[in-house]
User: What shape does this take?
Amino acid sequence: MKENPLFLLGLLFLASLPLAGCSPPPIGAPRKIQSPADKEAKIDEASIDGINLVSIGDRFRIKPYLQAAALLQNLGKEKACKRLAELAENGGDGKVEILCRMLFSKKPRSSLRPPSLGKPICLGGTNADDWLLLPIEIVDGIPFSIVRGYNQGGEGQPSRVYLEYCIENGDWSTMKIESVNQDALEKAWKKLLAGGKWRRPLRNDEIHFLSSQIE
Assistant: This one.
């Protein structure tokens, strides 16, 4: 029996079609599915070195500290402490101390002393005893510097010493640190201004010192 040419062409066409679920892989390198281990490695490769952290003073800004602290928190305590130690060895300049205040909390029925950076110049006529997290105050998860600077009475304690103290005497904080929008920053700023810790009304320059931190 002679086969119909059109019938043979139809069979060849059907044979060329891929079966369902068996389509050939796309041309080029296969797309790699990122595993949890890959994601952790990617976070570990990131570095706080590229974040513009400024210590206590008129140039202090909140957003970089939230970014750095969130990155360190995502690394976990062990890796984060190694990064903090590296930063301390390169001259912490108060940056490590601020991050420690954000990342460590006091243990139950105990306290964490503030870093030994000198005698603090606090805002609003307050002193070191008025602030549990000196040199910062955390409002709704947002850290504000409430110290204009320090009067040095001798050489300050190295940053690595305070880091070691926090590791030994503190707990890794469970408070989630994350970046926030401008509206949240402004609300926290207003809440701090209206707080009851000030011993006298804030001067205009002190209000500006606080408002500049949320820029």
